[in-house]
Specification:
The protein is an alpha/beta fold. Helices cover about 50% and strands about 10% of the residues. The protein has helices at about 30-40, 45-55, 60-65, 90-95, 115-120, 125-140, 145-160, 170-200, 230-235, 245, 250-270, 310-350, 350-355; strands at about 10-15, 100-110, 200-210, 290-295, 300-305. Helix 5 runs antiparallel to helix 8. This is Fatty acyl-CoA hydrolase precursor, medium chain.
Length: about 350
C-alpha cells in the first residue's frame, strides 16, 4: 500500500500482527538479493538482465540454493530500494500515499510471547531481561557504543517496571511479554492505523485476544497468555475446522473463526468488514478521535485504545533515545578519524633525522 507504484492497482490491504512500521519489517539493503543472484550465476550488473536470468532458472534449482550454502542469517525482508519502496513507510504515510484506500491492521494480545517466553530464563529474572534488551539494541540499531545499548535497555526495563532483582518470576515474564508485544506488534499497528486514517485511508483496527482451548501438546503457552502469534492462522484460515475434536475447540471458538473470515471476506470484496455476509458485531471504522477497534474474543466487543503512555514511549521516547545513541556513535567516529589525521600529520612533519632519533 505504501508504494507509489501501486496507485491504481490495489484497493487496500491487510496487515496481520503489526505493520510496515514494525522495527523488524523492512531492511535498507538489497545485498541479500545480490548474493542470491550471484550464487545462481545471475550476477549481471544491470537489474533487468539479472531479473531475466533469474526468471529463466529452474524453480527447483532456486529452492535448493538455501540448502546448499546460502547463509541462514540472510535478511529476506522487503527493502527500501528507492524504487518500489522509495523511502521509509513512515515518511510515505506522512504524504498521504494511501489516501482513498481501505486498510485493516491489528495484532494479537500476546504476539510477543513467541520471543519472550523461550528466552526468559528459568526462572525469569530482571538481569536476563537486561541482557536480552541490550542484545536487541545491538542487533536492531547497530550501535558502536555499548553505552547506547545500555541506555536503550535501561529505558525498556524502567518503562515496563522491570527495576531490579529479586522480582516474582511470573511478574517478570508477564511484563517482558507485554513489552515485546507492544514494541514489535501492537504499537506499530496502532501507529499505522493513525497514520493511514489521517492520510485518508478508510481504516479498521482489531485485537485478537481469545485464549483458544487447544491442548498444550499442540502449542504450550503460559497461563497468562491469551492469543499469541500463531493463533491467527487457526482462526483466520480455519486450520482446525476439519478436526475440532482433536484440537478441543469449543463451538464458540469455531464460530469466532468463521466470523473473522466473514469480516475479512467482506473487507476484501467491499472495503468494509460489515457489508456482505452478515456479522453479529459491527466493526467500527478507526478514527484518531475515537480510537475504537474490535476485540476478537468470545464475546466479541468494541473497545477504545487506552494505552497512550506506552504508545508515546514506543513512537517518540524510544526513537529519541536511539537517535541520541546514533549521534554519539557518529561523534566518536569523527573524533577517531580526527585523531588519526593529526597523528599522521605530525609524523609527516618530522624530519628524517628526528624520525630516526
Amino acid at each position: 500500500m505504501v508504494s507509489p507504484l501501486n496507485r491504481g492497482l490495489i484497493q487496500g490491504g491487510i496487515s496481520v500482527s503489526g505493520s510496515s512500521l514494525a522495527p523488524w519489517s523492512l531492511t535498507e539493503s538489497s545485498n541479500v538479493s545480490l548474493e542470491f543472484s550471484k550464487m545462481v550465476g545471475c550476477d549481471m550488473p544491470r537489474p533487468r538482465a539479472r531479473l531475466r536470468c533469474l526468471r529463466n532458472k529452474d524453480a527447483q534449482e532456486l529452492a535448493e540454493i538455501r540448502e546448499e550454502g546460502l547463509r541462514g542469517g540472510l535478511d529476506w525482508r522487503p527493502n527500501i530500494d528507492g524504487v518500489f519502496i522509495s523511502r521509509h513507510p513512515r515518511e510515505l504515510l506522512g504524504e498521504n500515499v494511501t489516501s482513498g484506500l481501505h486498510y485493516m491492521v491489528g495484532a494479537t494480545s500476546h504476539d510477543g510471547s513467541i520471543y519472550s517466553l523461550p528466552a526468559a530464563g528459568n526462572p525469569p529474572t530482571v538481569a536476563q531481561q537486561r541482557f536480552i534488551f541490550q542484545t536487541y539494541a545491538s542487533v536492531a540499531y547497530h550501535f558502536n557504543l555499548e553505552s547506547a545499548e545500555v541506555a536503550v535497555a535501561r529505558s525498556l526495563l524502567h518503562e515496563y517496571g522491570l527495576i531490579e532483582d529479586p522480582m516474582d518470576p511470573l511478574d517478570v515474564l508477564t511484563r517482558a511479554v507485554q513489552q515485546s508485544t507492544d514494541l514489535l506488534y501492537g504499537m506499530p499497528a496502532e501507529e499505522s492505523a493513525r497514520l493511514n486514517e489521517a492520510g485518508g485511508a478508510t481504516t479498521y483496527k482489531y485485537t485478537l485476544s481469545i485464549r483458544l482451548g487447544y491442548p498444550p501438546s499442540y502449542l504450550p503457552k503460559a497461563a497468562f497468555v491469551r492469543a499469541e502469534h500463531f493463533d491467527t492462522r487457526i482462526l483466520y484460515f480455519g486450520v482446525f475446522e476439519q478436526h475440532p475434536e482433536v484440537y478441543n475447540l469449543t463451538a464458540e471458538e469455531l464460530e469466532l473463526g468463521r466470523t473473522i473470515r466473514r469480516y475479512i471476506a467482506n473487507f476484501v470484496k467491499n472495503g468494509d468488514p460489515n457489508v456482505g455476509d452478515p456479522v453479529s458485531v459491527q466493526w467500527p471504522e478507526y478514527t484518531v478521535s475515537s480510537r475504537q477497534f474490535i476485540n476478537l474474543d468470545t464475546p466479541t466487543t468494541v473497545e477504545t485504545f487506552d494505552r497512550e503512555r506506552q504508545y508515546l514511549f514506543a513512537t517518540e521516547v524510544l526513537p529519541a533515545i536511539v537517535r541520541v545513541g546514533k549521534e554519539a556513535d557518529e561523534a566518536r567516529t569523527l573524533s577517531s578519524k580526527g585523531k588519526k589525521c593529526r597523528n599522521k600529520g605530525s609524523k609527516m612533519g618530522k624530519s628524517p633525522r628526528s624520525m630516526m632519533d
